[in-house]
Amino acid sequence: MARRVLLVLGALVMLFPFAWMVITSITPAGSVLATPPDFTPDGANLDAYRRLLDTMPFWRILLNSLWIGVASTILQLVTSAMAAYAFARLPFPGRGALFAVYLATLMVPLQVLIVPLFIEMRTVNLIDTYFAVLAPTVASAFGVFLLRQAIAQVPKEFDEAAVLDGAGHFRIFVFIVVPLIRPALATFAIFAFMASWNSYLWPLVIIKSPEFMTLPLGLAELHGRFTTEWNVVMAGSVVSVLPIIVLYLIAQKQVIASVAQSGLK
Amino acid sequence: MTLTATRQGRRSQGSPVPRPRGRRWRHALTVAVFLLPSAIPLTLFTLVPMAGSLWTSLHEWDLITPMRWVGLDNYLTLLADPETHAAFLHTLYFIAGYLPLVYAGGLGLAMALNRAMRGRDVLRAVYFLPVVTSWVVVALMWKWLLNPAAGIVNWTLGLLGVEGPGWWTDPSWAMPSIILASAWKDLGFVMIILLAGLQAIPKEYHEAARVDGASAWQRFRSITLPLLSPSTFFVIVISLINGFQVFDQVHVMTGGGPAGSTQVVVEQIYNLTFRYGRAGAASALSWLLFAVVLLVTLVQIRAQRRWVNYG
Amino acid sequence: MPKELPAKRFAAAVLATALLATACAQGSATKAPSAESGKVTVRYFTFSAAPDHVKDLDTIVAAFEKENPDVDVVVETAPYDQYFTKLQTSLAGGTAPDTFELNYENFVTYASAGSLLDLGSVAGDEPAAGLAAESLNAFKHDGKQFALPASFSTVVLLYNKDLFDKAGIPAPTADWTWAEEQAAAEKLTDKKAGVYGDFQPVQFFEFYKTLKQAGGEFLTADGTKTAFNSPAGIKATTWLVSKVGKTMPTEAEIGGTADYDTNLFKSGKLAMWHNGIWQFAGLKDVPFNWDIVVEPGDTSKASAVFHNAVAASATTKVGKQAYAWAKFLSSSPVAATTRIQSSWELPPVSDQAVLAGYLKDPKPANRQAVFDSLNAIALPPVIKRQQEMQDAVTQELTSAAAGRKTVEQALADAAAKVDALLG
After folding, report:
1. Cβ-defined contact of C94 to A179 (cutoff 8 Å)
2. What part of B 210-269 touches A (C-beta under 8 Å)?
3. Is 90 exceeded by the pLDDT of residue A41?
């Protein structure tokens, strides 16, 4: 019981910024960000959301972010799961070293890779294309690592039995390993989507045409040089968080369902 | 038993069972098919730019005028610069505070939310909310919470008779403030990874131990922790890699201040590249950071065989 | 054994991936911003249009394209914070926009790096006319016109008239000096009620201005060394720092809160506020009387001016059209009136009849002060390593304000750092 009370109290602390964000987004422009905050703003309205739709081609931007996010997530899941399988189950010379190279790609800050990557895209004439936004996100060393750990946890007896049945690696991968690591895949799907959904610096430099703009770029433009309309910024943040929450809820269902059916329980 | 990648790689090299040539080629082909979908994009879009930045690090470049070759000058200047030392120290300070906090908190949450209870799914989602909320919003809120004069935290401390510190505005409290906010935001991240790990632990183990009369603590020590170790290993390696590259929160919360007390390595890299027009020095600093992170990660990979338990 | 379902899903995922890859490639093939036949495309990159003035910029673009049917202006925007990240990357990659916006502080960096087109070389016999001479001169480098001024904003003293009336203190006038400002600020500050007399941020942009007000100079005449570690510099720094905690909230009280001063003023708890004319729009509906006045000086008056200009890239292939667009944005009547009508900064034109439109707006009553402030302006010192200098000065001033250093020490340290940057 004490645990529950504690968990609920903690949850309220976690919920606080979100509640604050929603409230600020419906607060009239004049009284935004008062200190201390006003949790029952007078004259609450949806003007900020209306301004959001007015100041930018909002639906177009949302659609761009959505399809890039979904495409990137699917690609990341496929490429990472396959590589993870190789690193966990297929012995080959230099495997440890290659894995270290994969990990090493996570270790150089994005800030210094932006310019060389931009120049690379420029030489192949891909600046200002969807391809250029998407391509650098399709492989994720983070995902390979996460899924490799998950596969390593799968008891080997499962695939050994399949090998005796004459199954090749593709069959083992698709029919045995993938179903067993569904909790990890669902977890990674959330991170993969988030990475693409929140990605800012790279789209900022590579996209020029407004019609390719993604949500973080649109939201950043709400910050003026000298002044910022915080209620509109908050409205934008609320909108940008919702799809991830939905995805999270779907993914959680997957995790629970998979545990129920995998026979591991 | 699955072994670590390194050990298995070695073992396969000295494999005593000779394979027929054709089989070996087929095996190589299989490995290639599994790896290439990720290896090709990683090479093109990360390794090639990495090489580009290595090249840049040997030049002086403001991004606007042509590069000028300076050899190792950037590295030597950085290594002798007290600001570089300070930036690395601040980064280490961040990690030292952040990592234990976020891991212990995340593990506690994952354990608490792994058991069946009413409203569990909702609670999990709520604890995950901060992970998905942007740093811009989170920073605004924490600045208000930790406002030294009017914030709710110091107000509460005041009720308890403690005079609250200056948080963001005090050089000795700014980093703890960032650590606190970061751990709070990332708890949900650690939680969901450890939850996935916890769910992979067969229930029978716990039940058997319970029948044997093991206490909750004993079960935690001898079953949960060892079987969770692959997930723990992942969380620690990734948190360290990310921790060394801490940037977003610093950038939006303090911008490296006050008095440079939260100037971390990547904040400096960002300033050097895009604000100060010193892309060469920024690249060199990145490679110094890379060397440190790589070293730390390799040490962990080496050490994992002692405590990480696979399959 | 698990059911077959996952395998089907996996296959579906692979198929979807393949489809997406195709869609993606098509996306890139069809994207090219196809210039209509015979038209020349001029790209323009700006930070000042989004989020509030995108439509106003569209108005100006439409008017320009009507006058120049063979030119198609394509606008790209970025928020100020990231504008230069994007601009530098595109310059590094050799894909600079044909025309782009630059503020005065960053102008020298780009002009001296050779990335700007000498507009004189493409102007032919159509020089830009009707621009204020000082504005035009601000964007000359080595005697060449590398950019045309497009807009400017000034900093004034905003004050809450009701607070002054209630305390029985006469409202500020154009003759005020620091002494009068300080006396009034002390009387108006009522910490118990959370009311502060004054707000002037302690940072670079306030420093070079107050320095000039105190009769000092930031750099020596030849620009090779700093000159601000002087009696005037100490006076200016002391003036800024002494307000903190006395007539102005401390760093701890502000606590890094976003828009703290804006909210303080809007909630009627700030009597005097040093800020820019860009704040006017947000103060339309506040429930108290407020007005503006030229900032008080010390030994002399000096007001800060933020200048933006349009430059063309040195590598543009459409120099003539780029110049025509820059000139239009800078000095055309359409651009000037659009800016005035929408309070999108001020046009740098010399024609007082055009500017008179700005005075029609009833609030604040003393709008004339905006133009009066131009009689004595302080331009920021500009060096090649501009951003580093600004950061260094701000950091030292903040240290002094927080009491971590004495004013003298902070100023000496700032001077040493800036001298090092000057090389």
Report:
1. no
2. 230-231, 233-234, 237-238, 241, 244-245, 247, 266, 269
3. no
Query: Residue A174: closest CA among chain C residues belongs to which residue?
Result: C7
| Closest by Cβ to A33, choosing from C7, C23, C258 | C258
Best mutation site among A108, A114, A223 for testing chain B: the one with the most B CBs within 10 Å?
A: A108
What residues make up the domain containing B136?
72-307
CA distance A222 to chain B (A): 12
- CA angle in degrees (0–180, nearest 5) for A173-A176-A180: 110
Residue type, A62: L
- Across the range C294-307, mean pLDDT stands at 94
Which residues of chain A have a CB within 8 Å of the CB of C49?
A: none
Fold of the domain built from segment(s) C40-153+306-359: D-Maltodextrin-Binding Protein; domain 2 (3.40.190)
Examine residue B224 and state whether it is found in any structural domain, yes or no: yes
Domain boundaries, chain A: 46-261
Query: What are the pLDDT digits (tens) for C23-57?
Result: 544 444 333 444 456 789 999 999 998 778 889 99
Query: Using CB atoms and an 8 Å cut-off, which of residues 183-212 of chain B contact chain A?
Result: 188, 192-193, 195-197, 199-200, 202-203
Distance CA A44, CA A150 (A): 47
When divided into structural domains, chain B yields a total of 1
Round to the nearest angstrom and report the end-to-end CA distance of chain C. Answer: 73
ipTM: 0.90
Give residue-wise pLDDT tens across range B172-226.
999 999 999 999 999 999 998 998 888 878 788 888 888 988 888 998 998 889 8
Confidence (pLDDT) at A32: 66
Q: In this structure, what token pair is assigned to residue C300?
A: 């002399």
Mean pLDDT of A116-142: 94
Measure A91 CA to nearest chain C CA, in Å. 24
Residue with more model confidence, A56 or B33: B33
CA atoms of B268 and B252, how far apart (whole Å)? 14
Measured in angstroms, the CA of A62 and the nearest CA of chain B are apart by 16
Measured distance CA(C228)–CA(C247) in Å, rounded:
25
Residue B5 lies in a domain: no
CATH number at residue B207: 1.10.3720.10
B25 touches chain A (CB under 8 A): no
CATH topology of domain C155-305+368-422: D-Maltodextrin-Binding Protein; domain 2 (3.40.190)
pLDDT per residue as tens digits for the range C376-408: 999 999 998 899 999 999 999 999 998 889 999
Interface check C17 vs B, CB under 8 A? no
Per-residue pLDDT at C4 exceeds 90: no
Residue C359 distance to chain A (closest CA, Å)? 22
CA distance B66 to chain C (A): 9
| Residue in C415, C23, C37, B49 with CA at minimum distance from that of residue A206 | B49
Residues of A in contact with B304 (CB under 8 A): none
For the segment(s) A46-261, the CATH number from 1.10.10.10, 3.40.50.300, 1.10.3720.10, 1.10.246.40 is 1.10.3720.10
- The A residues from 157 to 176 touching B (CB cutoff 8 Å) are 168-170, 173
pTM above 0.95, yes or no: no
Instruction: Provide, as residue numbers in chain C, all residues whose Cβ is less than 8 Å from the Cβ of B260.
Output: 395
Domain assignment present for B124: yes
Query: A77: helix, coil or strand?
Result: helix
Long-range contacts of A15-22 (CB under 8 A, 24+ apart): A15/B126, A15/B129, A16/B141, A17/B129, A17/B130, A17/B133, A17/B137, A17/B138, A17/B141, A18/A241, A18/B129, A18/B133, A20/B141, A21/A234, A21/A237, A21/A238, A21/A241, A21/B133, A21/B137, A21/B141, A22/A234, A22/A238
Interface with A, mutate which of C14, C26, C30, C31 (most A CBs under 10 A)? C31
